[in-house]
């Protein structure tokens, strides 16, 4: 049986990776099955929530410079200064963040449902990617010429979000390891978000539905899943 590995990361403000292995077909507390309406409103059951603490690493002793502390606000981002040929760290405006603060994961017999809360500056400060490994092989590269350390994992599929889907010019796409577009997400159908929310209110919420068929996986009992944020 194939394993499903889910990795959520922010290119401009990543959290240190940790791995959680869940035996059987249930998340902690038994949040399977659950069908999540894709409407930008978070109705994930509490048992599908995977908090940064205790799953985040490192909880203490991280580097504020590299944004890997648990519960760090991540109110800065890096931009390329072409004149100086160097990356420059800039402070985001008040209420803006690029931190992945919360993550939810559940599924039913048709789809895997992923919810992410936090980053609210995709318009000008970076992109959001969710990477999935479902089989042998894959790529260690990230879409759109981004540099990401997958810590030895080879990725098969990516959800890439350039602009939130609630924006008239919103764009999110599912690609394979060759970056071939499998499908573009449609707002309110298989992808949605809450619209802009201040970091003081937890940031924006995003949710996606991925069919098992899109991932080439046949759902069944004792499905192994590893997740890293």
What's a quick, concise take on this entry?
This protein is an all-beta fold and 229 residues long. It has one helix at 52-55; strands at 4-10, 20-22, 76-81, 86-91, 102-107, 111-118, 128-133, 157-163, 171-176, 181-184, 191-193, 204-211, 225-228. The protein has one domain (4-20, 37-52, 101-228).
List the helices and strands and how they pair.
Elements: E1 4-10, E2 20-22, H1 52-55, E3 76-81, E4 86-91, E5 102-107, E6 111-118, E7 128-133, E8 157-163, E9 171-176, E10 181-184, E11 191-193, E12 204-211, E13 225-228
Parallel strand pairs: 1-13
Antiparallel strand pairs: 1-7, 2-13, 3-4, 5-6, 6-12, 7-8, 8-9, 9-10, 11-12
Structure description:
The protein is mainly β and 229 residues long. The protein has one domain (4-20, 37-52, 101-228). Helices cover 2% and strands 32% of the residues. The protein is built from one helix and 13 strands. It has a seven-stranded mixed sheet with strand order 2-13-1-7-8-9-10, with no helix packed on it. Strands 5-6-12-11 form a four-stranded antiparallel sheet, with no helix packed on it. Strand 3 (76-81) and strand 4 form a beta hairpin. The protein is globular. The model is unreliable at 9-30 and 57-71 (pLDDT under 50).
């Amino acid at each position: 049986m194939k394993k499903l590995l889910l990795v959520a990361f922010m290119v401009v403000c990543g959290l240190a990776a940790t791995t959680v292995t869940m035996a059987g077909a249930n998340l902690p507390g038994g949040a399977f099955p659950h069908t999540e309406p894709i409407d930008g409103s978070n109705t994930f059951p509490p048992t599908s929530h995977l908090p940064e603490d205790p799953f985040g690493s490192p909880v203490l002793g991280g580097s504020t410079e590299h944004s890997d502390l648990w519960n760090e606000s991540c109110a800065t981002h890096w931009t390329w200064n072409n004149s100086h040929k160097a990356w420059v760290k800039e402070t985001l405006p008040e209420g803006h963040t690029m931190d992945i603060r919360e993550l939810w994961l559940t599924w039913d017999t048709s789809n895997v449902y992923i919810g992410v809360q936090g980053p609210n500056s995709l318009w000008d400060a970076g992109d959001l990617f969710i990477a999935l490994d479902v089989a042998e092989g894959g790529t260690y590269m990230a879409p759109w010429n981004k540099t990401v350390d997958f810590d030895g994992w080879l990725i098969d599929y990516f959800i890439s979000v350039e602009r939130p889907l609630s924006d008239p010019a919103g764009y999110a796409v599912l690609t394979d390891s060759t970056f071939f577009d499998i499908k573009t997400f449609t707002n309110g159908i298989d992808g949605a978000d809450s619209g802009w929310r201040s970091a003081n209110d937890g940031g924006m919420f995003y949710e996606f539905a991925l069919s098992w068929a899109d991932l080439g996986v046949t759902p069944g009992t004792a499905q192994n899943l590893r997740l890293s944020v």
